[in-house]
Amino acid sequence: MVATERFRPSVTVAAVIANAGRYLLVEEETPEGLMLNNPAGHLEQAESPIEAVVREALEETARHFVPDAFLGVYLARFVRPARLEDVTYVRLAFSGQVGEAIAGRALDEGIVRTLWMTPEEIAACAERHRSPLVLQCVQDHAAGRRLPLEAVFSHVSLRDPQRKG
């Protein structure tokens, strides 16, 4: 079979943030309705995954995020019913800590609120998860999965692309 178009998955980052047995999630408006997600978003051009997860966590939670470990690379695929769009996500998940919410800082557009939930509460509302990766990342974190941040390498060419030819 000859592919007519190059496969282009959506690359995202996610912050898995735990405190006292609870995980910080965001409730957000999506084409499928109000859903729960880890603070997450798309990797932007010229941005390292660590820079992206720090930015996304700040935008979605109004809290400074300090990554301390890499959880892993996660993939999921679904057909978005609202647009009949077939989407594959490649998620780079990081764990870390946040401070208190920054007074007066608005949450990103579409984020309704943040909330702290136990793994059991998160599992009990799986039908409201933006993706099956929400629960998987929480379960992996709770099980103690941690990889060094150095496992994610960003070459200097991200900011200064090399010309070939």
Can you tell me about this structure?
Keywords: Hydrolase. It holds the Pfam family NUDIX. This protein has 165 residues and is an alpha+beta fold. The chain has a single domain (10-98, 107-146), classed as Alpha-Beta Complex (Nucleoside Triphosphate Pyrophosphohydrolase), CATH 3.90.79.10. Helices cover 18% and strands 39% of the residues. It is built from three helices and seven strands; from the N terminus they run ββββαβββαα. Strands 1, 2, 3, 4, 5, 6 and 7 form a seven-stranded mixed beta sheet that branches. A hairpin with a 4-residue loop joins strand 5 (65-80) and strand 6 (85-98). The mean pLDDT is 94.
- Terminal residue distance: 31 Å
Extract low-pLDDT stretches: none
- CATH arch. level architecture: Alpha-Beta Complex
Total domain units? 1
Strand content: 35-45%
Mean pLDDT comes to 94
Query: How many separate helices?
Result: 3
Q: Shape, please? A: globular
What CATH calls the topology is: Nucleoside Triphosphate Pyrophosphohydrolase
| Class derived from helix and strand content | alpha+beta
Look at the structure and give the CATH class.
Answer: Alpha Beta
- Mind telling me the CATH superfamily name? Nucleoside Triphosphate Pyrophosphohydrolase
Share of helix, binned: 10-25%
**In angstroms, what is the radius of gyration?**
16 Å
- The run of helices and strands is EEEEHEEEHH
The beta-strand count equals 7
What about the largest sheet? 7 strands, mixed
Keywords: Hydrolase
Protein name: NUDIX hydrolase
Pfam families: NUDIX
InterPro entries: NUDIX_hydrolase-like_dom_sf, NUDIX_hydrolase_dom
